[in-house]
């Protein structure tokens, strides 16, 4: 079964390139396009794609607000934010809005394909830069005493179970 994708970006040429690349994948199909946040919401509601590939900076309504509304309207839809912004605040805002992933437009096409597969399987995807932002923020909060290092409070058996879960065991 093909992964149905909606492209939401205000740059027509970028949407055309993404559409060509994604439709060339045997298990992916671009089912619709949107040039702003409001249109992305309407098209998601109409088409029920598996994944919305969402830009942040768009006219009328930005991608973060559109993501928030899409998740309320079509909770099953997954959103992968594809943006040029490395800004750490955008990473947090996108995730709080309900995005399943965050990556930069400068990423390789293979990274995008991989991210779509990961998100399609129900997991989260963060580009290396977004991961670095998240870890840096967490460590800063631990050092400031705002966040407790919960790992150190686990028993030896709980740590063993956590390690196995992280390795993919149930």
Verbal overview:
The protein is of the alpha/beta class and 170 residues long. It is built from seven helices and six strands, in the order E-H-E-H-E-H-E-H-E-H-E-H-H. It has helices spanning 12-23, 37-47, 63-73, 88-97, 109-120, 128-143, 156-166, and strands at 3-8, 28-34, 51-54, 78-83, 101-104, 125-126. A six-stranded parallel sheet has the order 2-1-3-4-5-6, with helices on both faces. Helix 4 (88-97) links the parallel strand 4 and strand 5. Helix 2 packs parallel to helix 3 (63-73). It starts with a strand and ends with a helix. The model has no long low-confidence stretch (mean pLDDT 89).
Descriptive terms for the model:
alpha/beta, globular
Topology:
Elements: E1 3-8, H1 12-23, E2 28-34, H2 37-47, E3 51-54, H3 63-73, E4 78-83, H4 88-97, E5 101-104, H5 109-120, E6 125-126, H6 128-143, H7 156-166
Strand proportion, as a percent range, falls in: 15-25%
Kindly report the average pLDDT value.
Answer: 89
Overall strand count: 6
The number of helical runs is 7
What's the quaternary structure here? single chain
What coarse outline follows from CA principal-axis ratios?
globular
Structural class: alpha/beta
Strand order of the largest sheet: 2-1-3-4-5-6
Share of residues in helices: 40-55%
Low-confidence runs of at least 5 consecutive residues: none
- Termini separation: 26 Å
Largest sheet: 6 strands, parallel
What order do the helices and strands follow? EHEHEHEHEHEHH
Question: Could you tell me the radius of gyration in angstroms?
Answer: 17 Å
């Amino acid at each position: 079964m093909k992964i149905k994708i909606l492209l939401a970006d205000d740059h027509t040429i970028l949407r055309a390139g993404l559409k060509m690349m994604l439709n060339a994948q045997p298990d992916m199909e671009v089912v619709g396009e949107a040039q702003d946040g409001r249109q992305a919401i309407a098209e998601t509601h109409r088409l029920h794609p598996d994944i919305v590939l969402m830009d942040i900076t768009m006219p009328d309504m930005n991608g973060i607000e559109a993501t928030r509304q899409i998740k309320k309207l079509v909770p099953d839809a997954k959103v992968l934010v594809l943006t040029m912004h490395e800004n750490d605040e955008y990473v947090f805002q996108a995730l709080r809005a309900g995005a399943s992933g965050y990556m930069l437009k400068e990423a390789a096409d293979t990274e995008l394909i991989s991210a779509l597969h990961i998100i399609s399987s129900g997991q989260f995807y963060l580009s290396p830069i977004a991961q670095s932002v998240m870890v840096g923020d967490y460590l800063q909060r631990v050092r400031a005493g705002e966040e407790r290092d919960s790992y150190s409070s686990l028993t030896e058996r709980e740590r063993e179970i956590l390690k196995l879960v992280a390795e993919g065991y149930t």
